[in-house]
Specification:
The complex is a heterodimer of chains A (199) and B (195). Chain A is mostly beta strands and 199 residues long. Chain A has one helix at 184-188; strands spanning 10-12, 18-20, 24-26, 31-33, 38-39, 44-46, 71-73, 78-79, 84-85, 89-92, 95-98, 101-103, 107-109, 114-115, 119-120, 124-126, 131-132, 137-138, 142-144, 149-150, 155-156, 160-163, 168-172. In chain A, the strands form four sheets. Chain A has a nine-stranded mixed beta sheet with strand order 1-2-5-8-13-16-19-22-23, with no helix packed on it. In chain A, strands 3-6-9-14-17-20 form a six-stranded parallel beta sheet, with no helix packed on it. Chain A has a six-stranded parallel beta sheet with strand order 4-7-12-15-18-21, with no helix packed on it. The longest helix of chain A is centred in the last third of the chain and has 5 residues, at 184-188. With 195 residues, chain B is mostly beta strands. Chain B contains one helix and 21 strands. Classes of the chains: A mainly beta (199), B mainly beta (195). Chain A binds chain B through residues 6-7, 21, 24, 26, 44, 46, 48-50, 52, 84, 86, 89, 91, 95-98, 112, 114, 129, 131, 133, 147, 149, 165, and chain B through 1-3, 7, 9, 32, 51-52, 72-73, 102-103, 120-122, 138-140, 156-158, 175, 178-179, 181-182, 185-187.
Chain lengths: 199, 195
């Protein structure tokens, strides 16, 4: 890395998030980052598409601030260049509403992927140019190969490898293969003073 | 940290003159949408343009019908690599109730998107292609230039096609209207910026 920059490419927060200055975050008040999350340049998060319908009237009056999260992201997530996270929306009880998009920990989202899932579990690897349809539920330890199209409302079980258009389960994560999902090392390789991957 | 100048996070102002626009008073267009070109961009009533959608009319006029939704990062009116000339004066014509999803590229040159079409994420519509009414294009599909797609066709990205015989067009249009109602509240609109 010989590129010389006066200021770092990333903004590093106290909780260890590394957010590229060129990332496009819209509606930041509705985006929750768990910490140690990397958001690369040109990644887009649509936090402005927050829930408009109240979840239930019996919850007791005014909702707590920050409860209306549109996109919740866990720890050690990695959002590559040009990916896009947007909450899914549908007709609910007669009116249209967006519902929150939740990402677990150690979720990798590849370049140019568009994720409109309801829930993405922990230790999920989403390849490049993948489209995850609205209200898909992806469980833990799932690998989605490049160019897949996960149809809306799909549920992908844990430890599966999926690919294709539409995405189908094509295999299982091999025994002991779950360590490849750890993103702690990858987290260290980006930022304002990146360290090389240990070989 | 020697420089104290903070770079703007807003998209850079285009260097050229503003594209001529013709907006209805009821549209919702995000501040960070990108409009460029020298032909007119028409957007009819109650349509929604998401942030970072790119409308380029330099290759022909762009018309967007009533109650359309143009999602973020779309590129409407992109230049085509196809050298064949188009007979139409229109660049792109999107009819009423169409939805253009994220990362879609629609090339300019007499391209028509029929009423109630749903163009899926990351699809590419070639120059001069004509989609019939209520077509569904699944994500990552490619429509070749000058292709004509009949009404109610469903196109899958692996090349297979079928007809949509559900007959739910009225319901779909109603859902679209509801969605637009919500988007209007969520997306801060700033049409005056482009006029």
């Amino acid at each position: 890395m010989s590129r010389k920059q006066v200021k770092g490419e990333y903004i590093e927060t106290d909780t260890g998030n590394k957010v590229a200055r060129k990332a496009i975050l819209i509606g930041t008040q509705h985006i929750m980052l768990g910490g140690k999350t990397v958001i690369q340049a040109e990644a887009m998060i649509r936090g402005d598409l927050a829930r408009t319908a109240q979840p239930s009237s019996g919850a007791g009056g005014a909702a707590a601030p920050g409860s209306n999260t549109a996109v919740a992201i866990g720890r050690y997530c990695f959002l590559s260049r040009g990916c896009c996270l947007r909450p899914p929306g549908r007709i609910y009880k007669g009116s249209f509403t967006y519902l929150p998009l939740r990402l677990g920990d150690h979720v990798f989202v590849g370049e140019g992927s568009v994720v409109q899932a309801a829930t993405v579990g922990s230790h999920v690897h989403i390849g490049q140019r993948v489209t995850v349809g609205e209200f898909a539920i992806i469980k833990d330890y799932v690998r989605i190969l490049d160019g897949s199209v996960v149809a809306p409302n799909t549920v992908i079980p844990s430890f599966s490898v999926v690919a294709g258009q539409p995405a189908r389960v094509i295999g299982e994560v091999p025994e002991g293969g779950h360590e490849a999902f750890e993103l702690r090392e990858l987290y260290k390789t980006v930022g304002n003073n990146p360290q090389p991957l240990p070989v | 940290m020697s420089s104290s100048k903070r770079q703007s996070i807003l998209p850079r102002v285009q260097s050229g003159p503003k594209a001529p626009v013709n907006f209805s008073s009821t549209i919702t267009i995000a501040d960070s949408a990108l409009l460029s070109g020298n032909h007119t961009i028409n957007i009819n009533s109650e349509s929604v343009v998401h942030p970072r959608a790119k409308l380029d009319s330099s290759n022909g006029r762009i018309t967007i019908g009533r109650r359309c939704i143009v999602h973020e990062r779309t590129s409407i009116g992109a230049a085509s690599a196809d050298p064949r000339p188009s007979e139409s004066r229109d660049g792109v014509y999107i009819h009423d109730y169409a939805t253009i999803e994220v990362n879609v590229v629609i090339e300019s040159g007499g391209t028509m998107i029929g009423e109630g079409c749903h163009v899926g994420v990351g699809s590419k519509i070639g120059k001069g292609a004509k989609l019939g009414k209520h077509c569904t294009i699944t994500p990552h599909s490619v429509i070749r230039p000058f292709e004509v797609i009949p009404d109610f066709t469903v196109i899958y990205s692996n090349g297979t096609r079928r007809m949509d015989k559900r007959g739910v067009t009225d319901l779909k249009n109603k859902a679209q209207a509801r969605q637009i109602e919500v988007l209007r509240r969520l997306i801060p609109s700033n049409p005056s910026k482009f006029q």
